[in-house]
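Handout, page 2. Input:
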Amino acid sequence: MSIAQNLVELLSAKGLTCATAESCTGGGVGSAITAIPGSSAVFAGGVISYANEVKEKVLGVSRETLATVGAVSSETAAQMAEGARRLLQVDLAVALTGIAGPDGGSDEKPVGLVWFGLATPDGVRTEKAIFQGDRARVREQAVVHALGMLMAAAI
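Output:
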């Protein structure tokens, strides 16, 4: 059984709903969830906020945050998750923003760096991970990590 299937079953059993705000994964988390039959009962939708303008105008990430700490940051991930939870009116929202590569990395923000935000009724928290591998592998690992965060929040 896949983690996405486990998530859908858990959310359904608990009567919880979820949503996503994705940048570097381009909808991969939402795709994994909606591949599961019955996901429509628990998954409201997602925002693919690849461009900073979408992060700001749709999800409500502050312009100041984007200007000072950048799109790939704890603060942006938190604001993305909060924005998705508010916009889609769900119990849980996960957000991802990172550098999948092969270009775009720096010493401070290497390729493979992904910040995650998780918004729940109790507030928001963030996590960071640095994944290894090519672009596809980084994105795949980020999707699995985000699904795991939703699972942990639903338990």
